[in-house]
Amino acid sequence: MTSLLEEPEHDARVGEGPLPSIGIWWPMLERSFQLEILEHPTAPLRVLVVRRIFELCDLDDRPVPRSGVRLGANERAYIAGWVHAVDWA
Question: Which band of pLDDT confidence, cut at 50, 70 and 90, is reported for residue 13?
Fold first, then answer.
């Protein structure tokens, strides 16, 4: 089941482009980074977290935005569904 939400402009990411598809990197992301994101899902991601996401998706050569990246509404919905499906929090 997939739910896509229209993202309002104020929910747009900060920085130079979107993250890769969350379905690829979230299951592989280390638990400590997952917990950090779960604690503040609307906060900008730390550069270290974005760098790790790029590494997991073989995008090591891509520059990491220094101004921060936020998860969009669809990405936050994916995480909420994933946590509910695996009963993990």
Answer: very low
Q: Which structure tokens are listed for 7? A: 């993202």
Q: How many CB atoms lie within 10 A of CB 87?
A: 6
User: pLDDT tens-digit profile of 22-48?
Assistant: 999 999 999 999 999 999 999 999 999
Confidence class of residue 5 from pLDDT cuts 50, 70 and 90? low
Nearest to 70 by CA among 27, 19, 21, 5: 19
DSSP annotation of 11 reads G
The residues, any chain, with a CB within 8 Å of residue 24's CB and separated by 6 or more, are 56, 57
Identity (one letter) of the amino acid at 65? P
d(CA 86, CA 76): 16
Q: At what angle do helices 47-56 and 31-39 cross, to 10 degrees?
A: 130
Measured CA to CA, the distance from residue 27 to residue 29 in angstroms comes to 6
